[in-house]
Amino acid sequence: MPAEAQSELRVRVINAVLDGLSQTKAAEVFGVSRWSVNQWMAIHRAGGPKALAPKKRGRRKGEAGKLTPAQCRKLHGWLTRKMPDQLSLPFYLWTRAAIRHLIREQFGVSLSLASVSGYMKRMGFSSQRPVRRAYERNEPAIQAWLKDEYPKIAARARREHAALYWSDETGLRSDDVRGRSFALKGQTPIVRATGKRFGCNVISAITNKGELNFMVFDSNLTNDVFIRFLRRLIKQSRRKVFVIVDRHPVHRSKAVREWLARRVEQIEMFLLPTYAPELNPDELLNADIKRGVGQRRPRDTEALKQDARSWLYHRQHQPQIIARFFEAPHVAYAADGII
Fold this sequence. Notes:
44% of the residues lie in helices and 10% in strands. By secondary structure, the protein is an alpha/beta fold.
């Protein structure tokens, strides 16, 4: 309703109550809430008819306009290019409190948390779960990989009719609880499981066409273990293998390099940039394994290994799910072009 119409309605309600109509009946007659009538009467008693006069609408003076456009642009730049600790702030994430602290420190402006939320919304920001990135990342090397190195590898794979695999390792633990469970409100569900701690490891390799190869083992990743997996990869593939891995010390070891040099007609290995695990689509399979196996309750190492094998065998018969891993924005560059 226009401000004038609202003011007129309030006056009519108050006059009706002053003429003897109960507040409950007045609310019913005029189609307003009982709470509104009560509030209007209290304001009228405290300030008289003028207290209910229509007020000017629009942005209020004060917090809503405390930051200038230039300050908003600076704030936007800090939030998109820096983290709080890089600006010497005592915060780890960009929370409302951290942003308020930054505004007060840089601009000498004090805002409420609600006002910070308003600025964030108007500037196009939303609160999201962050993704971890290492300070040691070499951004130029990552850009070179995306724009130059990987396209060359993919082009070679097409010319040589090679199978291009992305490989990685992950560990599974018996005390890793995944998923959610219904329970009464306020009562955290309890998972019954063995108190023993044990684990196993998985090494896997996937293609953007949905192929999956894997090996489950309970030792540490060593040269012998990795070479054994590469032998399996060669044996299970009907053509030459290109495999892309991270820079784990085993992948770069002298023993592995010498083994590969003797089999260059069968397999070649390429290394991702350092501290850039998000470039490897096989990381998404690792997360999938942990979600699937983490909802089971194995009693010993052999049971955990069997759970892992069972889940991976299941995924081998679902190539469409493996292929969908390559649709994630950060690995979409690897989704197309390989036959």
